[in-house]
Structure formats: structure tokens, C-alpha cells
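Re: weekly structure request thread

Next one in the queue (514 aa):
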Amino acid sequence: MQLPESQVAVLEAASADEARSVDAIAEATDLPPETVTGAAFLLEEDGLLAIDERVDETIELTNEGIEYAEEGLPEVRLYEAALEAGADAEPVEMGQVIGRSGLEGDAVNIALSNYARKGYGSIDGGEISADPDASPDVDPEAVALGKLLGSNAEPADVADGEASIDVAEDTLDELERRGLVERRETTIREITLTDRGVTELMAGVEVAESVGQVTPELLTSGRWRDVEFAEYNVEADAERIDGGKVHILRQTAERVKDVLVGMGFEEMEGPHVDADFWINDCLFMPQDHPARTHWDRFALEEPTHIDELPEELLERVERAHREGVGEDGEGYHSPWDEDFARALALRGHTTSLSARYLSGHAIGDLEPPRRFFSVEKVYRNDTLDPTHLLEFFQIEGWVMAEGLSVRDLMGTFEEFYAQFGIHDLEFKPHYNPYTEPSFELFGTHPTTGELVEIGNSGIFRPEMLEPLGVDCDVMAWGLALERLLMLMYGFEDIRDIHGTLCDLELLRETEVVY
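Done, posted below.
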């Protein structure tokens, strides 16, 4: 009997008395495991070998998981620091507790995002409180990390759905979501020599010349008539390769841009770091508004202020704040400081771009009707939870024209969201310093059935438009791109798609719907 060289080697390395794994035969024959697997499948078809398969799962701590197992989970360390600071008696300034905990970088965000979720306490208005009855010693994730650390020298096996260490499945799922453990499924194939295989070996098996690829030399020489061509085994194992792809958030952002351009809008662009003048003052946002405190904005340490602002516009905006506009205008009767207006910060909304464009500062004076939009990042010092992050994408848009009304604004939203299969919008009256009337938008989450706030909108007030030199109506909005994804795909936690805790497998498998 003649067989290709690789099949002969595998046949001779197999045993009729005990099953041998593919890896063991690969080591004995000095062949790659995938070559052994391919040869074994062909020998099985000829009845010379028997192959048994099973799927094994191993659980291993990642480097981050090992670090947390040794030093403690960030949220546990934050809780312990909060107790030391007396936060179980009364709220303590968050920066003080973070400093005491020794947490830095991403670990701070991870701690904040899991602190309230686990019932260690609450974070509100830049202050942190601690629940004195919380028990980090029984934190299931911390306990599981400790167990896995002890078994990490030899990975924990999972057989028949049960781990060799006592860890609940939902805890393992959460640790995997956080990137603290890796769970790998491996197909184990064991090979045994059949009676026929034994008979053929005893009769003698010779190596036949086999060719895996047709070459010009093989054809011109005529040798192709005498060689045996190797069969191509489509069932042989192949290494999984996850190629790079555009993030689903970026894909959806591009889809949003396509939709808005199709609706006649032009795209705006501008700086992520801007003067408070453009971010808030031009929007008729009072300088003593709570959203403009250091708790809610990210101010720049260097440089701290902008040098150049349009002086005439600066004067008009200040006058609107102090005196209002029109015969019945009163303004805010509150302090207004030019130094604060020049202070630099990360923009908390992309309405700063709208102010730049409407004032003519960005691309020159605009004549109605015009429509503009942007899909850009904004930055807010929010409390992290399933619907809030410190940075996110905002879909900014506005239309300037004569005689606009709330009906026009609602109709625009219905047309826009219909492009993404969303038709059940609800509207709720709201207050904004820079729009009147104003309302929030809500959509129904496809999985939970709950209403999710997806945006804010309104008609810009005269106190904002008149200083900018605009004498027609302007309707505007700011929508959340991440929450659009929640309605489209059923995500319940935007941290699954965005940030340090994102679910990579989810991102690889989710496709953008067009």
C-alpha cells in the first residue's frame, strides 16, 4: 500500500492500544499539528484510523486580571479608601478618595463605573459616599479572581460545562466582559489505529510521491502523469485570524453623515478645545450656571486662555447676558467675566461649532436657508453608568430659515430616525438657556421596552441669535450617537461598545444596518 509521506508518518506513530492526541503525534513525527490533522482525516476515510473529538475550555487570567487578583479590584480599592476617608458617615470629595486609593489612569474610570453597580455606595456631584454594610470580602468577582490566581499556573479546565474551580457562570461572564479572564475553546482530537490500520502496517506501507501544487515544470516534463496529488481537506483546522475593521461606532457615524447629507445638510468642523465664550457664552448660558463649574467641565491647565476673540461679538454677547435683547429683555443680572469667557476647556457639546458658524466666524456670513451638522466627540464630567460616559459622540444639527416651528423640528427628526428603522419617537417639553421652546427626544429600547433619552432640541432664542447677527429662525438639536446604536442593536450598556470595558467579540460580530 502506498500513501503520502505525511500519512505514513502519522499511521506509524498511531497506536492501537491507546489514543494519542494530534499534538503528541505532531511532536513524535516532527510535523505541524495541522498537517497531522489533515493526514488523519484522510486515513480515517480509508478506515485506517479512528478519530475521537471533544471540546475543552480553559480559563486563564489576563495580565490585568492577575494585577487585580494581587492588588484588589479598582472598585474595592476605591471603597476601602472611601471608608478610610469617612465617606460612610458623610459624602467626601471624590478627588480626595481617588488620591487616597492610589488608583491612576484607566483604573480610575473602571473603579467609578463599577462602584455604584456593586452597591459600594454612590457618586453624585463630585462627591462619593460609602455604604458601611457593603462587604468586598464576598465580592464574587474578587473571590473568583483569587481562586483563578491560584490555578493560573495550570489553567482551569471546564469539562461538561462545569469548571474545576467553583465559580458561577455569570461571574465568569462578567470577568470576561471586563477583560480579566480569557476563555478558550479547543477541539481535542485523539487518534487510534484501527484493525485495518494494523493489518496494513504489518503488510508494509510505502511512501508514495505526492504533490500539493501543480507547477509549470511538472506540466512541461510530463511528470504529472506519474505523481499522486494530495487531497485538499476542507475540514482541517485553521488558525483563527481576526482582521482589523472599522469600529461599529465609526461606521454608524459615517451612515449618519450620509443620511444628513442626503437631507441637504453641510458638515461643520472645529476645535475640540475651545474658549468658554464659544462653548457657553454665545449660547446665552449664564456664567454661574452649575454646568459651567469645574465639576462638569474639563478645563485646560496649559494654555489656560485664548488670546483672540472677535471684540465686537464679545461686547454684544456680554450685553445680552447683562441686559438681554429687545425692549422686554432683562438679561441674567449675574456676574459676567471676560477672563472666564476666554478660559479654554474641552467642549461639552458641539453647539460651540454652531455658534462659530452662525456668527460668520467659521466660513463667513450665512444667508438663509442653510442647514449644517456635525458628528463629533464631546466631553463631560458625568457619572459613569450604562448610558453615560466621560466622552461620547454628539450629532449636532441646525436649520436657519424664515418661519420655522416645532412641527418642522419634529418632522425633521421623524425623517432622520426613519432612515434607521426607528419610528416610535416621543417628545417631552424641556428647558434650555439657549432654546425656547425646547424638548427632549425619547425612543423605545428594543430589548427592555424602556424609554431612552436620545437627544435635546429647540428653537434658538433671540438672546442667542441677535448677538450673532442672525435675524431669522434657527431650529437646532444635539443627539447622542451611542444611544442611536442602543435603539438599533439593543445594546443596554454603551460601555460594551466604547471605552476600556468594551466587548471585542460583540464589536467583531455586529454589522451596521443600512
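The chain has two domains: 1-73+139-241, 249-271+347-509. The chain has 20 helices and 21 strands.
Next request, please.
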